[in-house]
Write a structure and sequence with these properties.
homodimer; 13 helices; Aspartate Aminotransferase, domain 2; Aspartate Aminotransferase, domain 1; alpha/beta; 3-stranded antiparallel sheet; 7-stranded mixed sheet
């Protein structure tokens, strides 16, 4: 057979999703009859609001036709209403609907950076920023944050030390995936000042906005003077437990930027019509949906954190947002340990899947003893899943000592 | 206000969709009460099969969760069944579900070409190839085809004259958008031989496969020896009148390539779950859906072509596939004429929207008197829409003569 032509460099360096790469091992465990607690992926178990299903079932058109490239009017207007309820007034053209927050991230990166340009990210970061940057040919420049600082941003000087003539933007994620950290006003003002001083875009991933347990997370859209620099990459996936709906948006008051978003959007024609129809009905769910959900997640966070604290040698802080805890484990190699939990360990026929830390870092060697835990199960299940981890650590380390 | 930071070069050169850019003029015409026949966009009016709606309405899960990055099993298996019915056996891992053919095109281009690499396309071509190439930083190298040759491929020598050390792939579209041309076996074998000789990928857009009126369109997946080079970019948009469903697939027997498709897919997590559930039910619609649909489109083609032939000075050939005719108009400037039809002309309160030719060419100055007509209305409406065009040409040219 003729050999295959070479693939591109970006294809060769594109990583497999570190969140998903343990999945085959988990599947094998399930096939052996082991129950697997999934703390590895941010897939909430909370029910999607019935308004979504009702709107989809009520759809009466006979043809699933192309929608407008910007998004269907009803959905865009519903987002205007949602943002107005947060005291963030937006014009209709400040919003372009995207296929999940994923497309919003990719479009935003491509619009501000040319292949070879640089974008700052704060480490650890949402692992898929890396994938989109590779596809776009953009270089991510990691700026470290530390567990002992609660993963808050470093000083302006430290950030500035990473700037080069090719830096085009900073990515922030607030509340943060994977650390659960919510940025304070002082940090947001520092980001604003840096962006204005160095004329950089601020690409702000605010997908977990509602998941803030000690006080609201502020949007970059609320920072005065940043109107031309602030871009929000938004998604309904977490807010309405709609991960498989792939409904997101890119939002900015920068006209030239939004004009580019629309042209990028035109190339891929539109986002899914039926899902937009369903999503447009969700603003009506509003606070009556969020309030009990956030109360539930607060319980889960508290339960997970409490159990983690009981593990000797485990280091973590109580995060104030999102639904993740980034913890430092008392094991030699988190990748090996996480795989071992699935292949060699079970406690009462059950085990736990984690997301190993290195996938959230760009700097080699960082995160090798850390893992992200997504507390997306109910509180008793979260407790049980962490209990399994505790027993796993004990067994794993005693095995290693014998080696 | 602080000025906005600069956008990327690719953002600045990203074209507005030429198919969609007349839309505001069309909207204004409608607001004046003018009925607009849309021959500008490939949005079929045929009803989506009820199987799609039935499956979506029957969905019982309470959470719209992330699906597998490769696609949901049921949908992938339904595509295996569909391809098997075309005598194209595919393994489960030969298929990755994409968000429309659009994502399949972008993923395929990014996997085979690095920023600065070149991909050959045959002109005129589906305009959005250009948008995806710009996003990916890839250079499209146009190879001309001619109306007088029925837009069939040029000779191997002519194609080879466009190859450089940076050429990575050829894109073909069969049946063709915008020309309606179906490639003959001799052409496909030439493409195969060139791909093997120069070790190039063949990225084959086969979205219009069923729309072949004089004999089936052959897939590159059927070309012996091309297993490592052939990539199909597929979509259900046209086949099942599901344009707003954004359901597509990228297909190849090249394992390394498909592994990259999966990793690209993991970065954006998954395609819409509910739409996949609906799409999985469509294979069952099968021939009982296609046969009357193709008969209907054949009528529409014949009606549109007949009316076009009656226009003095209009040049076109009867296309054998897709649902487009690329015609050469007896006007000075097709962009001006197409806009004028919407802003200044109506016949009995009606007018027609066309897709101007230049948007389908990368070579400046080509296509300036051509337009693409999408015969996606019923035959009497197609006739009427072309009649309006005929009267428009007469009025427009007599105005110009007076100028």
């Amino acid at each position: 057979m003729t050999p295959a032509p070479q693939l591109s460099h970006r294809a060769s360096i594109m990583p497999a999703s570190p969140i998903r790469k343990l999945v085959p091992l988990g599947d094998a465990a399930k096939q052996r009859g082991t129950h697997v607690y999934h703390l590895n992926i941010g897939q909430p178990d909370i029910e999607t609001p019935p308004e979504f299903f009702d709107a989809v079932r009520a759809y009466q058109e006979k043809v699933i036709a192309y929608g407008n490239s910007q998004g269907i009017r009803l959905f865009i207007e519903s987002l205007q209403e949602y943002y107005a309820s947060l005291s963030i007034p937006l014009a209709f053209n400040d919003i372009v609907i995207t296929t999940g927050g994923s497309e919003a991230i990719m479009f935003a990166m491509m619009a501000v950076a040319q292949p070879g340009d640089e974008i700052l990210v704060f480490e650890p970061f949402y692992t898929n920023y890396n994938g989109f940057a590779i596809m776009a040919g953009v270089t991510l420049v990691p700026v470290g944050t530390k567990a002992e600082d609660g993963f808050h941003l470093p000083s302006a000087e430290e950030i500035e030390a990473h700037l080069t003539p090719r830096t085009r933007a900073m990515v922030i994620c607030n509340p943060n995936n994977p650390t659960g950290t919510v940025l304070g006003d002082d940090e947001l003002l520092m980001v604003r000042d840096l962006a204005l001083k160095h004329n950089l875009y601020v690409l702000s991933d605010e997908v977990y906005r509602e998941f803030a347990y000690e006080g609201a997370a502020r949007s970059v859209l609320q920072l005065e003077g940043l109107e031309q620099h602030a871009v929000v990459m938004d998604s309904l996936s977490k807010r309405y437990s709609l991960c498989g709906g792939r409904m997101g948006a890119v939002i900015s008051r920068n006209r030239a930027f939004m004009e580019v978003m629309l042209r990028f959007g035109q190339a891929r024609l539109c986002s899914a019509t039926l899902e937009q129809v369903g999503a447009a009905a969700l603003v009506a769910a509003g606070a009556k949906y969020f309030d009990p959900m956030i109360a539930e997640y607060r319980q889960r966070r508290d339960a997970t954190f409490e159990e983690l604290q009981n593990i000797p040698g485990m280091l973590c802080r109580k995060p104030s947002g999102a639904f993740y805890i980034m913890a430092q484990f008392p094991v030699d190699d988190i990748e090996r340990f996480a795989a071992w939990l699935l292949t060699d360990f079970s406690d009462g026929g059950e085990t736990t899947m984690l997301a190993p830390g290195p996938g959230f870092y760009a700097t080699p060697g960082r995160g090798t003893s850390e893992a992200r835990l997504a507390y997306v199960l109910n509180a008793p299940e979260c407790r049980r899943a962490v209990e399994i981890v505790a027993r796993g650590i004990e067994a794993y380390n005693s095995l290693n000592r014998k080696d």
